[in-house]
């Protein structure tokens, strides 16, 4: 696989990195890749249930994930085993790197949740972001991460969020 595109229906590994360590690695199927945005589908990759209070991720859930090579976020549409939309979980990340059968996404500790009905928009993990020290180590990356979070939040509140992935 080249660094510019992945073929539809190909298998690819998603590698989520946080603080220089692999946080999660799981297989996915490529849906589409236009050279800028890569879209994949994968089942819930963690063991058991993760209950955030506002949503539960659990075995049987299916994630349609969108990674950009030029944007500071990844958008993950979450559906249950019956294909009912739960909502969108957005990771603030450095632009994705796609190469050698992998998508590498570096998690920058900020997240956004948008419920399926669009009524709930939550900024998540701002305390983790502040504690990460990114603002001191890499002020430009920290500024880009915050700008990405604000962009996603604004699109969600304006009801234009799905324009990102249509």
Automatic annotation (TrEMBL):
Location of the DUF402 domain: 54-153
Entry keyword annotation includes Hydrolase: yes
The organism's place on the tree of life at top rank: Bacteria
Keyword Hydrolase: yes
InterPro entries (alphabetical): DUF402, FomD-like_sf, Ntdp-like
Keywords annotated in UniProt: Hydrolase
GO MF term list: hydrolase activity
Name of the protein in its database record: DUF402 domain-containing protein
Organism: Streptomyces hundungensis
